[in-house]
């Protein structure tokens, strides 16, 4: 899709890469009635029907999608690690700077909560 000089990408209902993806899907999905060179055969004009799973696979195969997914995953893992670090700061250990795995942090948190409940009950 060509833009006039005064038209920007933000004026479009979809981004350029979305348009390219749609064009690729149309090229793959639609077949012309023109004869294939050398074979003298024609293909039908009916579009190729894709399953929902195939459409999802094609959408996920784009570099833009993979990049966005990797960014979201990085942010999720970072938030997860920050939460563990904050929990770790609240748990008493000897020595205090001892490195603990995530499962050790969770087990220690369970024991510490049980201990605090016991202290409150007494």
TrEMBL record:
Any GO BP annotation: nervous system development
The organism's place on the tree of life at top rank: Eukaryota
Biased composition (Basic residues): 55-67
Keywords carried by this UniProt record: Developmental protein, Differentiation, DNA-binding, Nucleus, Transcription, Transcription regulation
One MF annotation (Gene Ontology) recorded for this entry: DNA-binding transcription factor activity, RNA polymerase II-specific
TM region(s), chain numbering: none
InterPro entries for the chain: bHLH_dom, HLH_DNA-bd_sf, TAL-like
Domain BHLH, residue spans: 64-116
Spans annotated as Disordered: 34-67
Matches recorded under Pfam families: HLH
PANTHER family, sorted: HELIX-LOOP-HELIX PROTEIN 2, T-CELL ACUTE LYMPHOCYTIC LEUKEMIA/STEM CELL LEUKEMIA-RELATED
The protein, known as: BHLH domain-containing protein
Species whose genome carries this gene: Phoxinus phoxinus (Eurasian minnow)
